[in-house]
Design a protein that fits this description.
alpha/beta; globular; binds nicotinamide-adenine-dinucleotide
């Protein structure tokens, strides 16, 4: 039986006059019918969130809010199998990834921020002016207010809770819009929120599309105080325009065109396995995935052959099949975009070392959105395949000759989210890492993150940092109190 995903507004699950289909990327079958929120419902959600700010939520201490967040995490853990099933149905990801990373990490976000807030000190200064007047200054950290949380489809629960958890722990209320492609895990989160007894209006959920729809109505809404967004850079630009007149704070985690650099002193096997993981994890649909690889000429041929071999190990198939390593892309529409880049690469003389095809299964998966893991060589650095974020299971590999040259090439990008350096030289690692224009640089690893560390990008890859205290820095506004002491 197909599911129905409803809005959750002011503590009530709400139907809609308009519904849209949530389709499986594995075979195109209907997963769920989703209630598209109307503009009136968006108004109601924002109004409920505003009322809740000054209601019981506003009077809870951080420790009381933390207790509720832990209770929520407990409930999510009890319903973990349902979260796994919902997320797999929406995304087609491999079962191990969803079970071991995406869902546990989503739950962990609530526990992490619940614990963090208890140990955050306030600031205070005793001062004396040149004329001798003494004063005490201290800060009071206040919530921003109503925060619109707009999330993408690639890591639906993990990325939305990465924003919802710190927003709530800081005393904000939220109106959440998940991606239209992946409404399932947020619908379940709303149920858990309801079950553990959050005050009405603290967490509101509205489903729908972006432009001229729920996303845009929310970001343009005068009752929204701040927008936290993860998604494409051009959507970030549209949201920035929407909030410009209100001069509202934004936190943007946007696209990437991430480089990997394999130096002549790299451990070749480790680099090949690491770059393969960085290119093909989640079918290349992680903002941190590597799409550009620069390899020292002395290793180039061996690296390309090794990467092609590793790519063949990324068995494409159904999420629940035990040999599946890589699922489909999120949708047929996104697959067509990825295939468009592959066609362009082919037309412009690229060499396809492996992949580049849609696999033929001879069953219902042929109605899905699969593409084989793909390794390409032979394109210039300024080719669109090397400049634009593709967000699919492909990477382009090019040779380089010296360190200064490769740093310049890695940095020659409109994006600056992440990069990976592969070298066995400690000196080189420390010399090169700070010179890479990216919010995050890995050395001999990829996708290794701690929730305390700042996360975000430079250039088109975003504005601001989230993670640990950096998240608290965005979701709270310090207000200074100054008391004359004489
Ligand atoms: P997207 O920008 O198309 O959509 C993201 C969300 O924004 C969706 O909920 C969508 O409905 C909404 N939206 C679209 N247009 C809108 C508008 N005009 N106003 C308000 N909301 C609008 O992104 P996507 O395709 O869902 O996700 C993939 C993108 O996300 C990639 O570019 C990827 O790099 C990026 N991403 C970045 C990070 C990061 O941390 N930097 C993490 C994950 C994904």
């Amino acid at each position: 039986m197909n599911r129905r995903y409803l809005a959750y507004i002011d503590g009530q699950f709400r139907e809609s006059d308009q519904w849209f289909d949530d389709l499986s990327p594995v075979n195109g079958e209907l997963v769920a019918r989703v209630a598209r929120a109307s503009q009136d419902q968006v108004d109601e959600a924002v109004g409920a969130a505003r009322r809740a700010l000054s209601g019981p939520w506003g009077s809870l201490s951080p420790a009381q809010r933390a207790a509720l967040l832990h209770k929520l995490a407990d409930r999510m853990a009890e319903r973990e199998a349902e979260f796994v099933a919902a997320e797999i149905a929406d995304t087609g990801k491999s079962m191990p990834q969803v079970r071991t990373i995406d869902i546990p990490r989503g739950t962990a976000n609530f526990r992490f921020f619940a614990d963090l807030i208890k140990n955050v000190p306030s600031e205070a200064w005793h001062t004396t002016t040149p004329t001798g007047q003494k004063a005490l200054h201290y800060t009071v950290d206040k919530p921003l207010g109503v925060v619109a949380v707009i999330a993408p489809w690639n890591l639906p629960l993990l990325l939305a809770t990465w924003k919802i958890a710190p927003a709530l722990i800081c005393g904000n209320t939220v109106v959440v819009k998940p991606s239209e492609e992946t409404p399932g895990s947020m619908a379940l989160l709303a149920e858990c929120i309801d079950e553990v007894g959050f005050p009405p209006g603290v967490f509101n959920l509205v489903h729908g599309f972006g432009p001229d729809c729920v996303g845009q109505w929310l970001t343009e809404h005068p009752g929204v105080d701040a927008v936290t967004f993860t998604g494409e850079s051009k959507t970030g630009g549209a949201i920035m325009k929407a909030v410009a007149d209100g001069v509202k704070p934004v936190s943007f985690e946007l696209g990437g065109k991430n480089a990997a650099v394999v130096f002549e002193d790299a451990d070749l096997d480790k680099a090949i396995a690491g770059v393969a993981r960085a290119a093909f994890t989640n079918c290349g649909q992680v903002c941190l995935c590597t799409e550009r690889v620069y390899v020292h000429r002395s290793l180039y041929e061996r690296f390309v052959a090794g990467l092609a071999e590793a790519a063949k190990g990324y068995v494409v198939g159904r999420p629940e099949d035990t040999d599946t390593v890589m699922g489909p892309l999120i949708s047929r529409q996104h697959r067509d975009k990825v295939l468009g880049y592959l066609e362009r690469a082919r037309a412009d003389g690229a060499t396809f070392v492996t992949g580049g095809e849609v696999p033929q299964f001879g069953d219902d998966r042929d109605q899905g959105a699969f593409v084989l893991p793909t390794v390409i060589t032979g394109l210039a650095d300024d080719h669109p395949v090397n400049r634009e974020e593709i967000f699919g299971p492909l990477c382009h590999v090019a040779p380089f000759d010296d360190e200064a040259e490769v740093i310049a090439r890695a940095n020659d990008s409109d994006y600056g989210l992440a990069a990976a350096i592969w070298t066995e030289s400690l000196t080189r690692a420390h010399r090169v890492a700070p010179r890479i224009e990216a919010g995050l640089v890995w050395v001999n690893t990829w996708y290794l993150r701690d929730l305390n560390t700042p996360f975000g990008g430079v250039k088109l890859s975003g504005i601001g940092r989230e993670g640990g205290l950096h998240s608290l820095g965005f979701y709270r506004e310090p207000s200074t109190v100054c008391i004359a002491l004489d």
